[in-house]
Amino acid sequence: MGNSSTPRGESLPAFRNEPYVDSSTEANRASMLDALARVRGEFGREYQLWIGGEGVKAEAKLSSLNPSHPDEVVGVHQKATGELAAKAVESAFAFYPEWRHTSAELRAHMLLRAARILRERKLEFDAWLVHEAGKTWPEAEADVSEAIDFCEYYAREMLRYSLPPAVVQLPGERDELRYLPMGVGVIIPPWNFPLAILAGMTTAALVAGNTVVIKPSSDTPTIAAKFVEVLLQAGFPPRSFEFLTGSGAVVGDVLVGHPLTRFVSFTGSREVGLRINELAAKPHPRQRWIKRVVAEMGGKDAIIVDETADLDAAVTGVSASAYGYQGQKCSACSRLIVVRKVHDDFLARLQAKVETLRVGPSEDPDNYMGPVINASAVNSILGYIAIGRKEGRVITGGQRAPGDGYFIQPTIIDGVNRKAHVFQEEIFGPVLAVTAARDFGHALELANDTEYGLTGAVFSRDRARIEKARETFFAGNLYFNRKCTGAMVGAHPFGGFNMSGTDSKAGGPDYLLQFLQAQSIAEKV
Ligand code: NAD
Fold this sequence. Notes:
CATH architecture of the largest domain: 3-Layer(aba) Sandwich
Structural class: alpha/beta
CATH superfamily of the largest domain: Aldehyde Dehydrogenase, Chain A, domain 1
Strand content: 15-25%
CATH class of the largest domain: Alpha Beta
Bound molecules: nicotinamide-adenine-dinucleotide
Distance between the termini: 35 Å
Radius of gyration: 23 Å
Helix content: 25-40%
Number of domains: 2
Oligomer: single chain
């Protein structure tokens, strides 16, 4: 994207990705330790719902825990009821006519202010992500930087969409196309990018002129409550958004099914995404529109390594993709496909690397991996490892790692077949299933043998094979000779094919169209 300018002609610098804070310097390390301690000092605080522009309490509460130390309560939150959920949608609907008539320029400037505030509070947000989501320092830093990127990028995008695109002018007519907001959007993010995805989906909808109901994950509600503070600080009107914590199952159906809900922006599991899609498709007697559903869902992402690859680079890429944030990324590599000729050599090198990865509390910067998100994730991941022991050979890991937190060793299961559960189902933990391919063509066939289609990567030095993969490897985000995680706003618009979702391409030039409707106007002159 080049320079963008506001409708009044002020020009904004071209978008650039937010640089990461380098925590290896003494000064930055000290600042981060200070931020971690300050945030810890706020543990146990109670947060309110935000409905109709004011704080609201519910009878029942839910607590978010520190997955590195599950006896620590990070935040106490309200458990909203179905009635409160309906009230939130109705309140967002009542304010929509006012919000939609604010100028795109004003909304974009609020977003740029939100980016500035996040930048000023960056280490504080990093610390919340370490404590509530179990992110290591670099993973937390990447999450907060991405949230800032979304704000900066979507602000510029909204200014672009606010200028009418050129259409053919028929003789005797003035012809025009313009983009309008849609109404009330329900925003349902997952816990694994609890700031970036929450902020991206929320700000895209808001800057486009919609009002929103934000329903964060119950594992990471404090980070979401802190982002709500940023929206208010940035000048978003108190009634432009509603904030509703509570059980996804209890309030989710009410929010999605409500006749005044115009669209749902969801990121999460395949199971919940498909349920939302189905529920949203059912019209309600008072409903005047077909609800739009943007659903970004799971992945079972593959990396192919062939016999021409730089194996050291491939070890680094596979290890980072499979074990960064404990494998809890939708983009994580969970299937490794190695051409037989280099299988044994590559696996030996990968195993040696994986056995150096330190696992432990995420606040300790010497740990490469922190905890998985909660006790039920531990059970589910260990359950898959048990299945994997029957379907293949666990060559490293396979156990809980020491400590009170939800720690699991980085695990490699070799020799599984293409239909194995561990090769087909999303595990969402530090578990890599490996299979050998006869040759490169077979490797591509195995990579595409999945109902998902989110990310994928190929390590090869053979140009013809790279071109073949470019044509046939069916993934929304495809990478060559690099890891398959770490999509950057602006450079790698993100979204998956098939059961991975609706391919909305977050952080790309088409994304805001999900939150807009186009109107054509012709006037006889
Ligand atoms: P999840 O589906 O369990 O929950 C996602 C959100 O949906 C949460 O806010 C949850 O409270 C809410 N929810 C749960 N039940 C609901 C219901 N019945 N109605 C409405 N909302 C409901 O997913 P998760 O465990 O939070 O996140 C992990 C999943 O997200 C993985 O499958 C991962 O691949 C996926 N993910 C996908 C992307 C992507 O861009 N494709 C990005 C990140 C995560």
